[in-house]
Amino acid sequence: MNESALLKAIFDSATDYAIITLDNAGNVTAWNAGAALITGLHQAEVIGKSSSIIFTPEDCVQKVPEQELETAQRTGHVADCRWHMRKDGSRFWADGVMTPILDVTGARIGFLKIMRDITDRKHAEMEIFRLANADVLTGLANRACFDTRLTEMAAATLRSNELLILQLVDLDYFKQVNDSLGHHAGDMLLKQVAQRIRSVTRDTDLVARIGGDEFAVLQPNAHSPDAGGSLAEKLLETLSGPFRIDEHDVFGSASIGIAVYPQDAREPDELMKKADLALYRAKNEGRNGFSYFTMHLDAEAHKRNRDLAELRRSVEENSFRLEYQPKVDTGSRLAIAMEALLRCTNPALSGYPIEDVIALATEAGLMPRIGFWVLCEACAQSRKWHDAGMPDLKICVNLGSRELMDPGILENIDAILDRSGLHAGDLIIEITEHQLFDNSEQGIAILNSLHSRGISITLDDFGTGYSSLSYLCYLPVDMLKLDQTFLKKIPHDPLSCAIAKAVIGLAHAIHLEVTAEGVESAEQVEFFQRENCEALQGFFFSKPLPAEQMTAWLANQNRHHDTAQNPFDALRRKSPRPLKE
Fold it and tell me: Average pLDDT, stretch 31-51?
């Protein structure tokens, strides 16, 4: 076989590759079987026609075929990977190379183009890319993709002189859906949320799921920051309607934080921080709303960081003290228990309401350490009062959900009681309804363990929580503490009196004691005496005092009362309430 015949055989046999020759003008002069198989165009249909016949309309408009010829002529080689067109109008991915064809004198007599169909490989690569950049559950962009696109969009925004708006969307009370209906229901809710967010955003907006129940929306090419608020209102509306989950209607809401690039931040990471600050504000303002980042928020954030640093220093240096407020028997007016109340002595924090300091400590995860210190100090002081001749005086300590969920809470309490020489019956643990609302089954199991040891459990701020009555069905509670908000108009307001009577009656019906806190007048004392409320607490008897002053108060009280039966003696003789499942 001569050389010409061999070349023709190779040309005709290479069915996996399209081998095409063009003249100097870019018209087809040869078309092998592989080109026909890949494109669906036979040789007779293309000979003498421009090679643009296999390029996409977009590439033809941009003169890509002509540019390919010019580059091959100038550099001697050109390679590309792009969409091409088949005869039926469908598209295929092809990578190809084009080189000039030279005669024996070195003159260019045309071009050789070799291509292969890589559509299947390209689709596989695109699927791998999609899986690497998509959230598996919702199909939205994932955190890695979001970070990349945020950087890219920020750079494009600087070139366009327009704005890029970032919205962080956090679902309110998502944990309750998981806890009450299960994680499968939570996943279904997240899928529906993703669909609703996508339904009110533009095609050019990027929607991503960047955390468990946190989503992000990037709005490029915004003309004004107001565009963020307009979209936020749509998001809040679409997320407020009921979601159908496993035959349950779940009513949701969301909190949204908005930051604008580049006016709020010049770096993507900083923009995220600013949007997160705005989201924090939206949640603090009652949820189901949106908030923009402002310089005021930035100043607050810096102040909060300073406060956190001071709080951490306070924990390390034990810059705290306890004050005590008596709980008195309604009949005898004798103190039957002392509530230990935390105070912060750090000068930078001492001017804040203690509730704010506790909230900051809870958020920073410092309350378990502070709570342990409170227990140690309170039990040590209780031991001193016992040794001074007041063995029936109980000590009350407030615990939050973070302290209850601390893995070592039971061992710590056992060790503290043992070290102080107190019995479990000398300790009362108070926990608020709001703290219980955040508790899991594990927290309830810990309450049951504490109660089985003989420690009394008081439900504080009763009547201000979410599901007050339901708690009483399964919690090992010994006493309700009627919140002081109900006492302000007693005994002059009939409605307030009726509520107080109803709570006391309910408690007594299920064998619970009641303490009324916030008592400030003799009339209130008389009212609760008539209603057989067991204990009272408030400024009428004493404001919270340091240990030394409270000891003097107790000594003065004892001088005016020779003897009195401890009303908790009867409580000790009662059979303990059964543990709740």
Answer: 93
- The single-letter DSSP state of residue 425 is G
Nearest Cα residue to 126 out of 117, 134, 135: 134
Beta partners for 338?
326, 395
**Residue showing tokens 């792009």:** 82
| Alpha-carbon gap, residue 138 to 147, rounded angstroms | 17
Is residue 285 helix, strand or coil? Answer: coil
Angle (deg, nearest 10), helices 183-199 and 226-240: 140
Identify the CA nearest to 290 among candidates 260, 269, 270.
Answer: 260
3-state DSSP of 377-392: HHHHHHHHHHHCCCCC
The phi and psi torsions of 6 (rounded to 5 degrees) equal: -65, -45
Q: Where are the beta strands (DSSP E) in 433-570?
A: 456-462, 479-482, 513-517, 535-537, 545-546
The mean-pLDDT minimum among 20-24, 125-129, 374-378, 498-502 falls in: 125-129
CB 455 within 8 A of CB 426: no
Domains and CATH numbers, the chain: 3-123 (3.30.450.20), 137-293 (3.30.70.270), 305-565 (3.20.20.450)
Structure tokens that stand for 344 in this block: 């912060």
Instruction: DSSP for 310-370, please give it.
Output: HHHHHHHHT-EEEEEEEEEETTT--EEEEEEEEEE--TTTTTS-HHHHHHHHHHTT-HHHH
Residue 111 in contact with residue 100, Cβ under 8 Å? Answer: yes
Written as six digits, the tokens of 249 are 């209607």
pLDDT of residue 247: 76
**448-462 pLDDT per residue, tens:** 899 999 999 998 877
